[in-house]
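Ticket #4471: structure output looks truncated?

Reporter: J.K.
Steps to reproduce: submitted the chain below (143 residues) through the standard prediction queue, then opened the result file.
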Amino acid sequence: MLRLAAFAVTSALAAAAAGPLPPLPEPLGGLLSPPDRLTITMSNTGNRQMDRKYQLECGPAGGDHPSAEQACAKLDRLAQEGKDPFAPVSKRQICSEQYGGPATAEITGTWQGRKVDARFSRTDGCEISRWQELEPLLPPGRS
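Returned output as attached by the reporter:
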């Protein structure tokens, strides 16, 4: 028993002397982590061709979103900046009384391993800014 305890202490000291372990490698080509998958449902845009559901996959870019590569690149940039593009406007935020039109968007799915269930509109200055922050995931311009 004493021999086993001595071995354990010696092994722990040897590991500590060797320094910290190297970080684990990134998932191999995204094989270990699922790709981001989002469903974007557009309504009341004033353009019938845009009022529909789009599928977007990132890692690699795909789906039927008309600007999949650009939308994924935008989401990647926002993630690198530590921003949550799907967070709602804070209730404490003061927003201008500006109306950008009746367009709405609903985004559901997963992004960065987290569940997404967000709604967007253009009903005031804060919501318009939030919408514009996600262009080209959401279409640009007024509805």
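Triage note (M.O.): checked the attachment and the full token line is present. Residues 33-86+96-143 form a domain with the Subtilisin Inhibitor fold (CATH 3.30.350.10).
Status: closed, working as intended.
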